[in-house]
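Help! Submission page says 'invalid entity' but I think these are all valid:
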Amino acid sequence: MRVRNVLLLGGAALMMVVWTFPVLWGLLTSLKSERDVLAYPPSILFEPTLGNYADVLFGATTILPNLVSSVIVAGLTTALTMLFAIPAAYALSRLDLPLRKASGFYVLATQMLPPVGLVIPYFLILRRIGWTDTYQGLVLVYLTFALPFAVWLLVSYFEEIPREMEEAALLDRAGRLRALWHVILPQAKGGIAVTVIFVFLNSWNEFLFAVVLGGNTVRTVTVAMFNFISLEQTQWARLAAAAMAGMAPVIVLGLIAQKHIVKGLTVGAVKGGGRR
Amino acid sequence: MKVDSKTRRRLLQAGAAAPVVLGAPWITRFAHAQDLGAYQAAKINWRQAEGEKITVAVIPAGYFDALIAVTPEFQALTGIEVRYEKVPPGQIRQKAILDLTSKTGTYATHAADPMYYDLYVANKWVEPIGNYLGDAKLTDASWYKPDDIIPAWRGANSVKGQLYGVPFDGESTLQIYRKDLYDAKGLKPAETFDEVMKNAAGVHNANDRLWGAALRGFKGAGQNMYIYPSIFRAFGGEWFGGGQFRANSREGVAALEWYVELLTKYAPPAVRNWNWPDLADAFSQSTLGLYVDANTSASVLNNPEKSKVIGKIGYARWPKGPSGKRVSSIWNWGFPINSALPDKAKRATWLFIQWACSAETQARTSWKAAGPVKRLGLNRLALWESKEFATLAGGLGANFLPASIASMREDLDVGWRPQMPQWPAVGETMATAIQAALVGQQKPQAALDEAQARIAQILKS
Amino acid sequence: MNRRTGERQFALALFLPALLLLVVTTTLPLVYLVWTSLQRIDLSMPWLTGFAGLANYAQLGGDARFWSSLGLTFVYTGSTVALQVAVGLGLALLVMQVKAGQGLLRVAAILPIVLAPVVAGLFWRSLVLAPDFGILDFLTRALGLGSYNWLGDPQLALVSVIAIHTWQWTPFAFLVLLASLAALPPDVYEAARLDRANAWQRFRHITLPLLRPAIVIVVILRMVTALSAFAAIFAATGGGPGSATEILNLYAYRLSFTELNLGYGAAVATVLLLITLAVSFGLFALRKAR
């Protein structure tokens, strides 16, 4: 039994190493000088420097404007998505919506579209209306993946809320809208928070749309990081620093909301999916 | 081969990690302090487009930072306001085309890839420069001396003999080798393709992390398809025969076989994914005996913060191929004029281009630059041969200036890559085939046969 | 009756804005994609622009790179999904036995999931897989296994991009399956234990059937992610070497935005769209049938 436990713990530990290693190694690299990065064998002990962070945040290769772009794009996308998704999810999950099944299926199907199939028509359309490299253009495109996902996730949360609570509110002649506002929303707070986090995360991490449809005005961090490898001289330490800085918001968000994310994945995937 | 550390640092910054110099407090001081007399000697009215605002797309690079740094002088001279947009090299073609196809005229001019002029011209997206060069109101030819600009670069930026973009900064390709290792083994820089192999074998010692030779293997029209054409032409290859595109000619296959053999035998395995920064990194970490790449990468190799080979570097022209020719790659970032602009903006754009590519501005962004960035890729041989430039570039390694000048004078070959509007697709197809052969996915003949079939399909209309 | 009509109208009022937005932002562009695939739109040969009928699709037939790309898409999707489910399930079963440190593991598992795929690709490419500088190269050499050109060799590059995707998304499968396992009623196990069923029998006849819905949904979601994979491969290999890791997404991108042949690129993207829809519908149908 002892041996077995040791093996189990070893396996679990190995897994942790594998999952965290690239990020930790990236963190380490971001603290090295360019010379230390190129050292062979790779150095574990070195004189750490914050110079790379100074460079990528405030220096010549600053990614601050890109962080701003990402905040705007992801923030607007999240706000708009929730504005449309909450009522729609409520209608889908709790109300007698005509063609409910077909509607739900349509929403689900739109979530599965390959982005490359969308980026080509959007490239042509946005070019025609002059919306390439604009916030409104990119946010519009981001809705294509954010909205169906949010509706789908919210439905599963709304379905969990006991009907009786809503019924009680309705008997009070509170009306459907007030029932939504006063009963459903407070009850689904956790689910809504998880949805917000996921939508924000997905928008923050998006790359294909941003690289094709963005530009100089709207250049998100993911694109900026990719650009690090196409400059005159690849600067691994700075790339690592930029990546750590660019990913810090989502990593922090992920760690803070870690419990909810797991629950979100489970509810969204197992429960909601299980019924549909 | 001594370089004082100050020069080194400057050169380093010219090559890479270019700091943004705009907005630095010294700029204003600098602009006022500068003398505009050198420009006012031109018999044109520099202020004829006063009040215009133009946007210029460039890539983030030291040589453009040097230009940005002196742009306040242009504004003082002409009253034209210039806004720069920095677009990464991987995206500038696409972003420029997006602007040109939608005819929005966002970019008055942009740093253009020479291989794209055929496409631009086929679509009438850019203006013939000749209209502006020939207009005495717009250009004082005796001051501007447009014919001094390196002829092959102009040739590369021309379609059917008409110039469409003025070269601002460029390079030729050279053998960059470890002089210390060669000297120790009694080797001389290769004069023939066979000697390249022999030299590589001579210094190769993979067990000790020293590889004999390396060339760009990374897939891309501007990467492996930047190096392969030199080999192709040196083997006597012709891109067109009997009105047809010919990728898989005997010479083409022989050239690719040579490329594959060199890299297979003497290059680090990873080279097949290497672009030039990776090569420069490896060379400066003292793991390569030779590589062939842009002469301007000399500044990176002399970066004291990264390089372990300072003082050990030698340069030589491309060796002669089996056909007896030496063929260097051609590269320059040129400035075209966007056709979608109104007339006055076009004139303003031309004044900007004329200013940027004039001998005076070239000098002011190089040895005369007050800022930290001093560029190397000047567009006129007269400047390369000047005493001041020799002082700046003298410490980059053995034979740097003579090899650079000779290669730019004699080895640049305008027909080196196939000039055609379909280049974006053709270049990518060739690049994929070359890499497929380099990694052993396909034999050279089969890879080129497939590329030939695909390109024939692309060109079918 | 009145109340019912009222509710329906109310439901519609809540649902229609989102529905309209979805139709406008997803369905109409897809119609336009299909329309584009019937055109010749080649920015490098603008004089040829015009309606082309099915010419782009006919061209697909003889395009070796398309077929290899299609094959790679199936290999990539199939192997990454299978690996994620197998590894994720294995780990979940294992972790169920470990009482201590589960929380820590969950945190570790979150890390790859929240990372942008383009960053995952860049990290793996530069820090892990790069010969000479990468840590994996150092490890294999230190262990005497030799040096491998992970991203430069066609087969290894495919293995590498599959590994990257698996690394990034297995935690998802793991977390979902772990949560499902934890939710299984303990009494069935007790009963089985009393029946003297061995571990494998318990897994095969109790755990697996109970987990099936969760597994199926994981397969569906992972498959959709795999079919739309782009950024990690783009950053790690760019589809290379040669075209060894060029799945349909990358091929359609390259055709459209590097080679500027948008019409043909749209045809490739349409094929991918059809495959994705067919796979999703197929899986859902399969699910319903059970």
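Support: the input was valid. A stray whitespace character was the problem, and the output above is from the cleaned input. Residues 1-33 of chain B have pLDDT under 50 and may be disordered.
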